[in-house]
């Protein structure tokens, strides 16, 4: 029996008409092979409302001459979206001619005609969804338009209005140019021009997704600029000092010697304004004493500027003042009426000061603000400041912009309603969580409130913001009037049901029940799509996931009467048209990943439920095997086209398998674990190719390896789990750069030495498989995991000098990319050795590893045995996929049981035969010193039921890690070392900003901490005891990739917060080379990066030296 919840109407004036909880700006909904984002009408559709978008002609972009429309996007976003509507006659719509699309672009684009993709370049394979924050895969200079011919115009056009929509993406948000110009016509007689040079396009700067939901913030580029100037900006991490900032003139209160280090200083002061002062209509005046230039802002609005170029143009942190000025006498600048710039209560004055030269001998910034004869802000008060060694955090849009929950209120009466003082809440005991301003609704009119959790509207002026969010699991929602006490006008009590990420919950009529709808329409109550009564419950499993020694019987069931259960075993999601219908108990005899879903007409399908069942199979263990090379003779092949040139003398018979592969069946007389040649001769020393082992022609690929730039007389082979004696098939494919072949030998098997012990995947017993936990990753192969659209996909390209590079505009490599745009939804299960327990959770997965390693990584099927094949990734727990965090006692010695991200670490120098333990050991050493370090444990990784390798499951050093381990509810600065491909160390800001970090090193600059008072100041900025313990662990372990790299520093953003240093990526420790006599401390004495600089500054203090000795005594004796 089902219970239908009806809203409770106390008065028939205004009603909660529609709302949406848990919308997703990353969740894709697939209809067949076509993905769409979030909910609502897609921006590529004719029905999409683009009335708020600005308009202009193409060419559109920046950095090129001859543009019709210039947009400001640099350092803001890589993308811009365009739409133009055109009309065609019925005759044209029925033509079967070719459509011609001509596009001049920089760097990548996708074009859609009436919602159907018709062309794409530099943005991956056709059909893949590209997020707003995703850059183009390679650079392409505009200037030579490309022509795309689309067959049969009648399949794309319709009589009347049509829409051509194009999304354009730059190679990066910092690239200096972008361009798009597109023309659409039928060029055959009679020719028809549909989109031409004079067409008007509406465009959206890609600071957020153009459709799919309502962003919590933003929508227009001006909303994002200079967030540090606004009252709601988080400047908690900025240092505090009395006004009068500068150096060199002996008249500055807070001395900041930025000479040679920074061109600018940013300052903020918050002050109160009374209603009486504003009512007095007093004039505002800014008293500015500066050397050399400044820009001043009141409540985010620029009010004054000197020597910094054109007003309203963004001033970069490294921009120099355009001319010099000596400070000494303030300039009085009238700003206008106070009531036009200030509001009752809190206000903010923000000023950025810039020097005329980086090495200038002086600098000053002193500001006073007066309204009439009342001082509002004075230079001798305490200001927050930020040294401009880089842009303040938040000066560009945050990339991770979520869609907001929202509630639509409808005036269902026949008369206007004024909502002033009414309230909206999700808590019956707190009725005034959100109070409406003075807003009137005419009959049938609606107002939308964003349940964004933001109490102030901070970027989306079109909506009101409530200071709470809606629960996707269901909760109370009520609308109250302004009576005293407040009375419920409309409420859903006790709670609305669980919500969908792709549907809203809307009334069928103003007084009717709620139903789910697949076309959410905030602000437009006339639109109502297909409706559904409930969300079905997921199927239930009679058998827990786990590791089993014998076959098992599984029964599926669903609590919803009449529901059909469908399932898949390949990782894909079952739908009405995909997967098998469950007819009865399933017999499980081998590794099985089962994904199930309940379906019933008129109801929203259930969430997909996933379980993994592992049986005795390939696992990790120490086994004794003979080390053998199995040599198989094949012919050699040419590059273009790949053709058989052999067979060679004494070679086995060869056959051409396909246009790009050559194969040979052979018999292995005994078990083997390598195949190749111990002494091959390569006909060209630059040849590259793929070598693959199959159980039979067109059978299952057991192992594969790409061999790059093969060298004459080098040993090249595939290494894989031990295979039994029997018949096999060897294939050469993907040959480039020359010809490839092996010489024949008289014997098939070459013993290369005595048997030895190696850590390898091998057929193991049930006990071996269940010795350590298993992690099972399950998801759709081509959409979420691998080629063409998955998070670990590599499409095309080539490996030049061992590093992947694109060859053409259709090539892409997700492994080398960073950010949420490459995160994909997966199911992950933790399966402990015990017969029951663990967890299953839906989360996101994306690649890991540093930029140094990523270009050399390769995609192979089967076990990931080599260092380059053993891919690294991370699990992100977000509301877009499932729970916002994982709650589970994952590490036995860890008091923390909540995680928002987990790293699956391979070890840069550890393949399947070299256990990954050194990093774990250094973590434990630091914890034994009394410091905080990541917890980790070794696990076996399975992807869609296939064993890959063992990994280290590790906590990741992000803000949530520090909050959990230090019992903090505050935000944190998290700064990491970063080594790009140039091997020049840089910094990566993971959370917070650089204000306190730059202040620390600016403080150390030119100061001798032998002075006890200065040392005490340093101790307030750095956890010195923890820093020493951190140094000792790395010195003792002889960490070879440190201190220039592989460190994380974090600081709680509170006034007395101190930087602490944390161990990470220390697998290159305890090495034989450079030798036990090498003095690791020499790096601290000689290198110029941050940790050595900090160490040498502190070492000047006798107190530090004594403390260093004390910590050695404590830990070593």
Summarize the structure.
By secondary structure, the chain is mainly beta.
Overall shape: globular
Enumerate how many helices there are, as a single number: 13
Helix content: under 10%
Biggest β-sheet, characterized?
A: 7 strands, mixed
Number of domains: 7
Q: How large, in whole angstroms, is the Cα Rg?
A: 33 Å
Strand content: 35-45%
Helix/strand/pairing category: mainly beta
How do the strands of the widest beta sheet line up side by side? 35-34-29-2-38-39-40
Low-confidence stretches: 1-12, 218-225, 395-400, 457-461, 618-660, 677-685, 742-765
> In whole angstroms, how far apart are the ends?
71 Å
The overall strand count is 77
Query: How confident overall, as mean pLDDT?
Result: 85
Please give a structural write-up:
α10 packs across α13. This protein has 7 domains: 8-22 and 404-532, Sandwich (Immunoglobulin-like), CATH 2.60.40.1260; 35-223, Sandwich (Jelly Rolls), CATH 2.60.120; 227-387, Jelly Rolls (Sandwich); 540-612, Immunoglobulin-like (Sandwich); 627-754, Jelly Rolls (Sandwich); 766-956, no CATH class; 972-1116, no CATH class. β74 and β75 (986-991) form a beta hairpin. Helices cover 9% and strands 36% of the residues. The radius of gyration is 33 Å and the shape is globular. It starts with 7 loop residues before the first strand and ends with a helix. It is mainly β and 1117 residues long.
């Amino acid at each position: 029996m089902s219970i239908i919840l009806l809203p409770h109407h106390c008065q028939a004036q205004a009603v909660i008409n529609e709302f949406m909880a848990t919308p997703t700006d990353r969740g894709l909904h697939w209809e067949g092979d076509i993905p769409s984002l979030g909910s609502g009408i897609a921006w590529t559709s004719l029905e999409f409302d683009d009335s708020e978008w600005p308009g202009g002609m193409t060419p559109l972009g920046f950095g090129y001459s001859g543009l019709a429309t210039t947009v400001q996007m640099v350092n803001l976003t890589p993308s811009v979206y365009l739409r133009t509507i055109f009309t065609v006659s019925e005759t044209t719509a029925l033509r079967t001619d070719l459509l011609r699309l001509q596009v001049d672009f920089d760097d990548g684009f996708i074009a859609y005609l009436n919602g159907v993709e018709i062309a794409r370049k530099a943005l991956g394979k056709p059909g893949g969804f590209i997020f707003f924050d995703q850059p183009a895969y390679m650079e392409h200079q505009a200037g030579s338009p490309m022509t795309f011919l689309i067959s049969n115009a009648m399949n794309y056009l319709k009589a009347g209005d049509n829409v051509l929509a194009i999304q354009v993406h730059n190679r990066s948000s910092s690239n200096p140019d972008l361009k798009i110009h597109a023309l659409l016509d039928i060029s055959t007689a009679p020719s028809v021009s549909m989109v031409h040079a004079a067409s008007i396009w509406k465009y959206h700067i890609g600071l957020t997704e153009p459709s799919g939901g309502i962003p919590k913030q933003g929508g227009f580029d001006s909303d994002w600029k200079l967030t540090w100037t606004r009252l709601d900006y988080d400047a908690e991490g900025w240092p505090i000092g009395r006004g009068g900032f500068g150096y060199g003139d002996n008249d500055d209160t807070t001395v900041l010697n930025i000479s040679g280090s920074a061109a600018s200083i940013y300052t903020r002061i918050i002050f109160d304004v009374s209603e009486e002062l504003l009512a007095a209509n007093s004039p505002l005046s800014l008293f500015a004493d500066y050397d050399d230039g400044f820009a001043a802002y009141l409540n985010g609005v620029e009010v004054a500027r000197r020597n910094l170029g054109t007003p309203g143009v963004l001033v970069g942190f490294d921009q120099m003042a355009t001319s010099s000025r000596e400070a000494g006498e303030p300039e009085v600048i009238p700003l206008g009426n106070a009531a036009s710039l200030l509001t009752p209560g809190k206000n903010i004055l923000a000023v950025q000061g810039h020097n005329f030269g980086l090495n200038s001998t002086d600098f000053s910034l002193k500001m006073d603000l007066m309204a009439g004869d009342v001082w509002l802000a004075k230079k001798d008060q305490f200001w927050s400041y930020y040294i401009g060694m880089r842009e303040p955090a938040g000066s560009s849009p945050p990339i991770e912009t979520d869609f907001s929950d929202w509630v639509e209120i409808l005036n269902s009466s026949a008369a206007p309603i004024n909502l002033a003082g009414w309230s909206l809440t999700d808590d019956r005991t707190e009725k005034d969580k959100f109070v409406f301003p003075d807003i009137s609704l005419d009959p049938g009119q609606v107002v939308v409130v964003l349940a964004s959790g933001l109490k102030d509207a901070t970027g989306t002026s079109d909506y009101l913001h409530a200071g709470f969010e809606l629960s996707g699991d269901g909760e109370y929602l009520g609308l109250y009037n302004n009576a005293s006490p407040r009375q419920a006008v409309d409420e859903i009590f006790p709670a609305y049901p669980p919500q969908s990420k792709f549907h809203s919950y809307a009334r069928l009529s103003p007084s009717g029940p709620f139903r789910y709808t697949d076309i959410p329409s905030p602000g437009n109550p006339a639109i109502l799509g297909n409706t559904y009564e409930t969300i079905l419950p997921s199927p239930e499993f009679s058998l827990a996931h786990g590791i089993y020694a014998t076959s098992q019987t599984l029964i599926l069931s669903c609590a919803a009467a009449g529901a059909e259960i469908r399932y898949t075993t390949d990782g894909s999601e079952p739908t009405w048209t995909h997967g098998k219908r469950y007819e009865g108990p399933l017999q499980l005899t081998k590794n099985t990943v089962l994904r199930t879903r309940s379906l019933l007409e008129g109801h929203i399908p259930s969430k997909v439920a996933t379980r993994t069942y592992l049986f005795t199979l390939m696992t990790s263990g120490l086994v004794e095997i003979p080390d053998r090379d199995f040599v198989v003779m094949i012919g050699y092949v040419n590059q273009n086209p790949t053709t058989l040139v052999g067979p060679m003398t004494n070679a086995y018979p060869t056959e051409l398998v396909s246009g790009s592969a050559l194969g040979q069946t052979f018999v292995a007389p005994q078990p083997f674990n390598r195949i190749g040649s111990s002494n091959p001769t390569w006909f060209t020393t630059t040849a590259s190719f793929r070598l693959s082992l199959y159980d039979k022609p067109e059978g299952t690929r057991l192992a594969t390896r790409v061999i790059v730039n093969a060298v004459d007389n080098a040993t090249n082979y595939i290494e894989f789990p031990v295979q039994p004696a029997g018949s096999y098939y060897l294939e050469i494919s993907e040959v480039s750069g020359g010809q490839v072949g092996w010489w024949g030998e008289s014997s098939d098997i070459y013993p290369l030495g005595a048997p030895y012990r190696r850590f390898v995947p091998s057929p193991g017993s049930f006990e071996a498989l269940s010795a350590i936990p298993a992690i099972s990753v399950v998801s759709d192969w081509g959409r979420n995991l691998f080629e063409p659209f998955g998070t670990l996909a590599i499409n095309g390209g080539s490996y030049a000098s061992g590093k992947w590079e694109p060859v053409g505009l259709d090539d892409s490599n997700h492994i080398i990319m960073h950010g949420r745009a490459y995160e994909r939804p997966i199911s992950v299960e933790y399966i402990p050795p015990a017969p029951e327990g663990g967890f299953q959770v839906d989360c996101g997965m994306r690649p890991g590893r540093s930029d140094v390693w990523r270009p050399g990584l390769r995609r192979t099927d089967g076990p990931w045995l080599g260092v380059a094949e053993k891919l690294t990734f991370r699990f992100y727990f977000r509301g877009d996929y499932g729970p916002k965090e994982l709650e589970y006692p994952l590490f036995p010695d860890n008091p923390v049981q909540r995680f928002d991200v987990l790293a699956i670490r391979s070890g840069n120098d550890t393949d399947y035969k070299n256990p990954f333990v050194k990093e774990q050991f250094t973590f434990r050493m630091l914890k034994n010193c009394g410091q905080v370090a990541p917890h980790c444990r070794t696990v076996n990784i399975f992807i869609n039921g296939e064993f890959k390798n063992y990994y280290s499951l590790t906590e990741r050093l992000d803000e949530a890690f520090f909050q959990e381990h230090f019992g903090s509810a505050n935000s944190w600065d998290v700064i990491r070392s970063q080594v790009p491909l140039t091997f020049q160390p840089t910094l990566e800001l993971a959370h917070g900003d650089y204000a306190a970090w730059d202040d620390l090193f600016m403080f150390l600059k030119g100061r001798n901490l032998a002075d006890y008072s200065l040392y005490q100041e340093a101790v307030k900025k750095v956890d010195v005891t923890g820093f020493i313990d951190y140094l000792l662990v790395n010195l003792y372990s002889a960490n070879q990739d440190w201190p220039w790299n592989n460190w994380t520093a974090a600081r709680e953003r509170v006034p007395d917060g101190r930087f602490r240093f944390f161990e990470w990526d220390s697998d290159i420790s305890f090495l034989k080379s450079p030798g036990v006599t090498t003095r690791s401390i020499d790096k601290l004495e000689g290198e110029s990066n941050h940790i050595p600089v900090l160490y040498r500054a502190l070492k000047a203090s006798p107190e530090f030296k004594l403390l260093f000795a004390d910590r050695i005594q404590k830990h070593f004796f």
